Amino acid sequence: MVEGGIAKADKTEFTECWRTTWKTPYIMRLAFSAGIGGLLFGYDTGVISGALLFIKEDFDEVDKKTWLQSTIVSMAVAGAIVGAAVGGWINDRFGRRMSILIADVLFLIGAIVMAVCSAPWVIIVGRIFVGFGVGMASMTSPLYISEASPARIRGALVSTNGLLITGGQFFSYLINLAFVQTPGTWRWMLGVAGVPAIVQFVLMLSLPESPRWLYRKDRVAESRAILERIYPAEEVEAEMEALRESVEADEAIIGDSFGAKLKGAFANAVVRRGLAAGVTVQVAQQFVGINTVMYYSPSIVQFAGYASNSTAMALSLITSGLNAIGSIVSMMFVDRYGRRKLMIISMFGIISCLIILATVFSQAAIHAPKIDALESTTFSPNATCPAFAPLATPNAPPSGWNCMKCLRSECGFCASGVQPYAPGACVVLSDDMKATCHSKGRTYFKDGCPSKFGFLAIVFLGLYIVVLVNINRFQQT
């Protein structure tokens, strides 16, 4: 039948999906067109991580105020909350197709606003519009796919939406890397999101509404016409009957009061345990930091000791790729080995990776390169870090001063030109000083310090992504 709801897939269903869509390309056209919403969701949540590095270079206030950076990132999430809430009403009132079209318009407006903005607050406005689109797309795209696909392959087609989300995140890192050397950098990164929104808008104009929504609106003939394009002729009547029974059951439930529904749900022990498990996993998934990694991955890489924006985004591309690969792996193994067993293993993996990452970053800070007092005071005129200058002695730096202490004093660190982990200069934080440091063939650090432990952070960050993606897949199914 074609009712909505949670759909899961196994290996057999994916095989059947390939066979069915090969015979009936129209089904894949429906699923792919709606699935672009998942791609947009992934792109707009991932692209800001790289764009933020260059936004900080263009706007000094963003570079100096971490709360402003957090606001730019988080406004998309705030917008998504509103978009999801309003999207539910739009879905029921105007249909799934109209909801997707509105989300595309919001994506496009947000992309244009951010691409042409002249101040940080304008970027925030654009992020809010994008968030509205994300909220609507996150609930509407899988719903449309579920209601417009045959029951026997519904799980496989809905699963592709989740794959497109991680694919969109990976694509955003590729785009970020592609525009590193292009004038306008972050404007192109954020503006490109308008392209798939336009593509989906055009595709959805030629596609029908969800047959289930049409049936609920008493547009039975239109609903049947769509099912005739999806199912073989001999199966259409059975699907119409299944659809009728499903809609009637839903209407009967809708007639109950909220209190009666809640009481009925909690009276069932299986429902109670399932609800408790689902809510716990959802909350735990957010608290273990996946959004922090996806929104700030290049910044985290820089904290690990890779100062270059290009290098940070290239290494972040690895973690994003592992995110997409992890989705595919989890889809392959979730039905073979069971959700509970693999989720428990994944939780232990997450805990282990986070403990190791905390240890790595702690050791990196402790063993950060020392400060060369002579270089810091003679590097160039008026170059010495203001916090360091009064404490400096001719022969040695003040006790406890190293690269990390220098950065925490809102200064920059110009690494040694002989050996990257040798003592370097603690200098003022400015673009001019960065250029001076680079002119001497050295690396300028302002977000992280040179570290022998940096590669370990990348390795375990990648492992963390893989095991966390598995949990995300399990809770969805």
From TrEMBL:
Coiled coil: none annotated. It is found in: Membrane. Residues 30-477 form the Major facilitator superfamily (MFS) profile domain. The lineage of its organism: Eukaryota, Viridiplantae, Streptophyta, Embryophyta, Tracheophyta. It is a multi-pass membrane protein. Pfam families: Sugar_tr. GO terms for cellular component: membrane. This is Major facilitator superfamily (MFS) profile domain-containing protein. The chain crosses the membrane at residues 30-55, 67-89, 101-122, 128-145, 157-180, 186-207, 342-366, 453-471. It comes from the Eukaryota. It comes from Brassica carinata. Belongs to the major facilitator superfamily. Sugar transporter (TC 2.A.1.1) family. PROSITE patterns: MFS (PS50850), SUGAR_TRANSPORT_1 (PS00216), SUGAR_TRANSPORT_2 (PS00217).
